[in-house]
Design a protein that fits this description.
Layout: H1 14-20, H2 42-65, H3 73-89, H4 104-120, E1 134-138, E2 144-148, H5 151-182
Antiparallel strand pairs: 1-2
Helix pairs in contact: 2-3, 3-5, 4-5
Protein name: MnhB domain-containing protein
Subcellular location: Cell membrane
Membrane topology: Multi-pass membrane protein
């Protein structure tokens, strides 16, 4: 092959520009700092931004529907935990949100307290542990709403599961940041070169 028959070489840096095309250029998608900006993709961040609130609403639906159909605090908490996992994978903050600074152990503890107090409260009135009471709230011509006291138990389990998932994400993220610091990389929020 002669030099005139060879295909022209791509300009220098062209492959790099193609690789950077899908990376977000700023912090406009999700709040929080991503440890490695090179691993972020715009498609995943956009999907996480759209799916995160939808999945959280679905988890609340599972929580409330659990007394009359499939669902409850455990399955609703797991679905909400999956929303936080999706957000974490997309490079977002692993807190409940940029506006809420709730520590996962506090969430686990409050969920456990709500669940235990709800389970033991009927004993104060002479009923067995985990006994339920049903309240009916009437809205005039619009109908009524039945609320079961065991819904509080499910809310406690829901909070507990979300707290466990967030604590797991936090511990995994701290391990990644520690490994990056040990490798000498610059890690946002602590202890890197810079």
């Amino acid at each position: 092959m002669t030099a005139s028959q060879e295909k022209p070489a791509p300009p220098p840096g062209d492959a790099e520009s193609w690789a950077r095309m899908d990376q977000p250029s700023g912090r406009w998608m999700l709040p929080g700092a991503c440890p490695d900006v090179r691993e972020r993709t715009l498609v995943l961040e956009a999907a996480a931004r759209l799916l995160f609130p939808v999945v959280l609403v679905f988890s609340v639906f599972l929580l409330l529907e659990g007394h009359y159909g499939p669902g409850g605090g455990f399955s609703g908490g797991l679905v909400a935990g999956l929303a936080f996992v999706l957000r974490h994978i997309a490079g977002g903050d692993d807190n409940l949100g940029s506006r809420f600074r709730i520590r996962p152990p506090v969430l686990v503890g409050s969920g456990l307290i709500v669940a235990v107090l709800t389970a033991l409260a009927p004993v104060a009135w002479g009923d067995p542990v985990l006994a339920s009471v049903k309240w009916t709230i009437t809205f005039g011509p619009f109908g009524y709403l039945d609320i079961v006291s065991s819904l509080l138990l499910d809310v406690g389990v829901y909070l507990l599961i979300i707290g466990v998932v967030l604590d797991l994400l936090r511990s995994l993220g701290s391990g990644i940041a520690r490994d990056a610091r040990e490798a000498g990389e610059d890690v946002p929020g602590g202890g890197g070169r810079g």
